[in-house]
Amino acid sequence: MTRQIAFRMKIKPGAEQEYQKRHDEIWPELKSLLKNAGVVSYSIFLDRETSTLFAIQEVTGENGSQELGQEEIVQKWWSYMADIMDTNEDNSPVSIPLEKVFEL
């Protein structure tokens, strides 16, 4: 059985195209890690007016991508993305969990 996880993040204004480009070219080893960790589906939506990203993951098990920070490839990805996103001191994206309030 899968469950959904949703969260929001922010990119720096003007970084929308670069963010899209980097995700269009996501590293195969990162994709493999996500799939192997139980991330069945992962979508990210951009609100261009606020530079806010809304992410939704379908996962099997307890954790989603946000709990893979100990993995070397994830740390490299965070460093790669840090110049265009709001990040924490360890380069992880500032990620705010969202509460599901409706589902059809």
UniProtKB/TrEMBL annotation:
The Gene Ontology terms for molecular function here are: L-rhamnose mutarotase activity
Q: Which gene encodes it?
A: rhaM
One short Pfam family name for this protein? rhaM
Protein's UniProt name = L-rhamnose mutarotase
Give the enzyme class: isomerase
Alphabetically sorted, this entry's keywords are: Carbohydrate metabolism, Cytoplasm, Isomerase, Rhamnose metabolism
The keyword Cytoplasm is assigned to this record: yes
Name the InterPro entries for this protein. Answer: Dimeric_a/b-barrel, L-rhamnose_mutarotase, Rham/fucose_mutarotase
